[in-house]
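Exercise 7. Predict the structure of Phosphodiesterase from Micromonospora krabiensis.
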Amino acid sequence: MSAPSPHPVASRAATHAGAALRLAAAALAHLRRARALHPAGRSFAGEVTIWGTAGPPTGVALLDEPGRYPATVRLSKGVPTPGSWPDVLGLAVRVHLDEERPFDLLASSSAAPPALRAVPLPRRRFAGTYTTIMPLHAGGRRVWLAALADPESTDLGRSLADVGAATRADEPRLVLAVASAAGPWRPFGQVSIGTQLSARQDAALAFDPIGNLPAGLSAVGPMAWLRAQTYRGSREARGARVQSGGSLGVTV
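Solution. The predicted structure, encoded as tokens:
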């Protein structure tokens, strides 16, 4: 039996609400002359190494099977506050899987405990816990992805300038992990942060955390819809387009 079609009134309401959100995001991007969300940031060439998921597999091949992939990494401030003032910090990792579609992992500064991993939290230091905030679906279960501080890595500091200096001195790392709603974080890989890209390349990057997901991982629900509309409005205002291929080119 097929699923019932959405009610025409509800469908029109969703269409109008989506348009309003896109317009609001576009207006903010025009005002800032930059991204609507996380306008201040630095982008870097990087690499993602997958070790495989410890314990039961997630059902997502990218997380469960060892591999190594080139990546583009962006660290950012959300408001943005000046210098080393506290802010909701952002981490975006584009994993260049193949020529079909990349994987865009977007995470915000948060906390590791189950009750807080869905809450964006301001902090000063760029090394710390970042989570997807929004749950993702894998094998019919809700999961969160995270990037956690690596105690053996070069510190990323408290400002975007510090982040740039850290990458010139070494190749900082963050540990990638997955968790259920109440379970512990299970590390499955790491992201290494390399050479800084130019300001022009950073400005051209456009991520899609809803559309650019690997096979077996999906984003559904009100939060996913809200994010999809907001990011779309911001991209349209900047004249940016989401990269549909896995090319290493960063003009997206």
